[in-house]
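Input.
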Amino acid sequence: MKRKCFLIFLALLFLLPVSSVSAAKVIDESKLYYYGLNGIYYYRGDSDKCTTSDGGNQNYAGVPVWSEAELAAIDDNRAIYEEAANEYDFPWQVLAVLHSMETALKRYNPANGQGVYQLYTYTGGGSNDKAFLPAGPIDEAEFRRQTLIAAEIVSTEVGDLNEPDNVKKLFFKFNGMSSRYIEKALAMGFSSEEAANGEGSPYVMNRYDARRDPASGEMDPNWPGRYVKDGVYDPTSTSMVFGAFVKYEALAGSSFCSNNGGEIVDTALLLSWPGHDHAKDDPKPEYIDAMKEIGSYKSYCNDSGCAPPGASCDVFVSAVMRYSGSDPDFPLTGPAVQKEHMESHPDMYSKVDASDVSDLEPGDILVTTENGRHIYIYLGDGMQASASFNDRTGEHFEGVYLSDGGTGNGTRHYEVYRRIH
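Output.
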């Protein structure tokens, strides 16, 4: 399967003759949110590195999107999804999501004759000679046949499915482009183009962000309202089912071109809890897995005592750098040792002369070795990811600074290092 470099495409589309452009200058707000959520903030014209990241299996709030059973079923079907998607050059995860939304990843024909992927038009609503009959379980050969048919159909519906907006539009079109959902998106402040992509459709976008999440206390009052069955619209109904694009994003992640900051940010978000409410003995499961893989899942001690696994700033940063593959040899502990490592590898790290937070780029590492040592990762948009010795495990939250009050021993001044190719 060919993966597209989204930001390169956008840069070319807008024909901006610059070698390094902030994504905010060339991407509208919906796309910026998509890339921001995945840690993609910059297209750098001097870089030819394309990175593919998985989706981390979570939505904006860190809630798991796919169950273990669903992931196992997807894995069983993956070779067939990939064969069909590769035929038409789009991400195989599109087919996996449609299979999930339409028949819960099962290999069987529903009684309506529309098949595994519920191909209404192709089967004439299940009544023409292309209807998938009989109803009931199907074998692998039939599942493969239907998947190939579905791939051919979806590949011609909305354009290049390597573009996220087109994936949204496909899901919206697949479920039926209801005018009610378009009106809902407009009422929520989306543009006409965004509304036409399915931003107001629960089938597509449910639980994508706090505004469209019934589990959030910040749900937009315009979000309730959905079709509870064919032709029946309930204006007060909501659902806890993840939207198709949320499932896609959690499964497929993104394919993008960037400096190493993209990899670092993506991994930092994966390994850290959102917010400031997780105790020192509560590392995120993904963080535990990462520490075990790199050999840092153990208690560390210094003059201040001992910290449980994960509750140390240096351990968190080393887990991000090693687990992301950005620097497999990044020292496991000691901000001073880590700073020395970055300084001694000028081919891998550049020291940034930052006089203001605006000089930072996502993925930058900030470290101080004075008045209480600390190290953290800048995520972009005023966010950082960090841990604190014997206090908290990895978390990401608002608040970025080049100096702070330290630990009571005086102000700490941070030096900035940037991973380069």
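Residues 68-154 form one domain.
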